[in-house]
Request: fold
Amino acid sequence: MNEPSLLEWKMTIRMHTSSWKGLPFAGMESSGICLGQRILGKEGRANLSERKPLSDERFMHRRNVLLCGLNIRSEFMGATTGIALAPPVLVSYLQTRPELSAEYEFHFLDFRYEQTDDAIVSAVRASAPWLVGWSTYVWNIERVLLLSRLLKARLPGLRVILGGPHVSDPSVAEWLLQENPALDAVVRGEGEIPLADLLRGLLAPAENWEAPGITCRGSRREPASFPSAAILEQLGRSLSPYLSGVYPLDDPDGVFVNLQSSRGCRFACAYCAWGRTRVRQFPREVVLEELERVLSAPRLRGGFFIDADFFEDDAKACATLERLVERAPQAYWFMEGDPARVSERALSLLSRLSNCHVSFGLQSISPEALRLAGRPFTNLNEFAQSVRRVIQRVPALDARVGVICGLPGDTPETFRDTLEFALGLNPTFLWSSLLIPLPGTPFLREAKRYGIEHSGPPTFRLLATSTFPRHELERAVRLSAFVSLCHEFPALRIAAKSVGIRRGGLRPLLSVYEALEQRMETQGLAGDSFPSSAMANVDLYIPLREHCACRKNIAALYRALLGEAGWDLPPDSLSAVAEFLEDIEERFSPTADLRKVDPWQLKRSGRSAAPFLPGAVE
Ligand code: B12
Ligand code: SF4
Reply:
């Protein structure tokens, strides 16, 4: 493998922000830093700041700890993929520990999934690490294991550790060490305290790997897990990579940040790897100071508020929204929450943001599935009313609803009822995730009891449940990816709804998409094989969207709907449909590529477009 120069390496890392072009900035002017200076000066999405002057004796021989993130496939979220937050958070924290920063220097690298193995390995090697730590999630575990093998083969003395939610269960951590000689240890749970303890232990002449929260190898290389480590009692400034300057906010390509104002969740959903951790809040002043710093970024594209429920603390939510409205109303803001908790004040502030997306998790409407998932409290009427209220009050809001396919207790029929219910709420985007029995969750720990059949480590891909046979599950995932795609086209959504309501029946809305899917299948829309990844929904949806990124295929989709509509509609409506079709075809030039078109802009324009069918319902 050719070694890249440091400059090439910096450029490799930066290149992966290039897909961010095309989205508007937050309305602030560029800092004026030119690209060349920047590449030669700081290192893009890597932090190599805080390097102490080499003349300082104390820092001459520090060991280099490199923490790496490997993000999701960027086709999924496009320009709003965001950053892998854990590595810069951990670097930020570790730098505040004087006993460690005297002996170590800490850096992070944020890789894109699309980067080649060679490019990633070269970038890691170029930073000459003493220890590499990977931030591990279900979407990158297989790749991280491969990269760890490649790195260890080239740098036999390198210490390689994993951390993150996907490896935090002791039995998974032990399996990983058993099966992967390239790994030296796994840090379980919240990383700050156990990683600091581990690094302190590694300073001993004999390198002590044993510490709370660590799974490491014993004297005969057999894996052993030590009891869980403590979690941070107080959250504060030291955990903000933006306030510490660890994460550079002056990237000339713009930044899309992840922001955290609390840790933990008061619920404990059986499919979630994140609940069951005590809720702790960052102090209000730190949250606002961090937001202020982010809002001062010269080219801010927006951010994702990763709290479990953005709206849980209304005063905090409104204080945040007020700043977004004042400082960056055009940027892209994402948050998740309970629709019933969105206050009138929050709604009024949301209505002043141009590109805001809020996701509401429905998951299922089956009482049995909700009970088994630990969400028996879900009140479907309240959920529906709350989502409708949000959409009515803020029509320009990108209001999304999420469901899960394959929950224990759900059947193919109840899942289709869930899709029908969700479609009826009229969200701008309906996303269906395939259940993953995640490490650390009851659904994996007690898979048998829940009737869950999975592929085992490392990804735990769902194969079937006792109420959802395998072939039905695959059908349901295909259908839901297709529904997500169609629903993304506002005019198609309105048209499908109109056709469905006219036609009636058991599931009036979903049945239109089912018929449409059948028509499109005959035109080769659906591939033959079913993706063998844990996130088959994503792997089906991305090529579907790519397929519809050209005028011909978009037109085919609309024509299929026209066929459906033709069965029900009076002839005069058909001419309106045809006109509409032309309009759509115009929007998508032959070279139009949906990945480059901002889907949120499309949605918005659709919301204001007059429904083309008589009596169409938005
Ligand atoms: C942001 C986010 C996303 C973004 C990801 C993009 C991005 N740039 O980050 C989006 C919205 C795209 C996303 C998608 C999905 N996500 Co998500 N997401 C999150 C979320 C909300 C925040 C992650 C985060 O940054 N946390 C903040 C950091 C600081 O916390 P942390 O990750 O837990 O890291 C701490 C420890 O784990 C540990 N640690 C982490 N890395 C390392 C590394 C080392 C070396 C060490 C020592 C320690 C360590 O220390 C950190 C600090 O304490 C979490 C939930 C949550 N609030 O954490 C879910 C979460 C990460 N997502 C999850 C899942 C399942 C998904 C999906 C697969 C859902 C689905 N079925 O479709 C999809 C993936 C889609 C795809 N295409 O691949 C799971 C992951 C579980 C797992 N085993 O991997 C989580 C935990 C939520 C859950 N319900 O369980 N997600
Ligand atoms: S799914 Fe959401 S509400 Fe449920 S435990 Fe996880 S973060 Fe909390």
